[in-house]
Write a structure and sequence with these properties.
The chain has 123 residues and is mostly beta strands. The protein has no helices and 11 strands.
């Protein structure tokens, strides 16, 4: 079984940056696609970014393209989301998750989820 634990969220002013981390327990981390999703109050959970097990391919939602960067370090069983030029509309709980599919962008394709970390961007 795999446990995912997000960290790095917090309060930041518009235009600032944060780096989220997702640490995974278990020895099967590197064979999975890893993704980031976010959910604001009263809204559905939306895809943010995904990365293949090798780290060679990435996919981003249009809303974050050019501002966010997903990466992974399989030796550390950790996936990262570097968030730059943050906007108030980026405010949400951010979740990391794993999938057996290649760069899926829907939450139903992911089988394990972290507990989420809050990101709040002030005006």
């Amino acid at each position: 079984q795999v446990q995912l634990v997000e960290s790095g969220g917090g309060l930041v002013q518009a235009g600032g940056s944060l780096r989220l981390s997702c640490a995974a327990s278990g020895r099967a981390f590197s064979v999975y696609t890893m993704g980031w999703f976010r959910q604001a109050p009263g809204k559905e959970r939306d895809f943010v970014a995904a990365i293949t097990w090798s780290g060679s391919s990435t996919y981003y939602a249009d809303s974050v393209k050019g501002r966010f960067t997903i990466s992974r370090d399989n030796a550390k069983n950790t996936v990262y989301l570097q968030m730059n030029s943050l906007k108030p509309e980026d405010t949400a709980v951010y979740y990391c998750a794993r999938s057996r599919a290649v760069l899926p962008d829907h939450w139903r394709a992911y089988d394990y989820w972290g507990q989420g970390t809050q990101v709040t961007v002030s005006s």
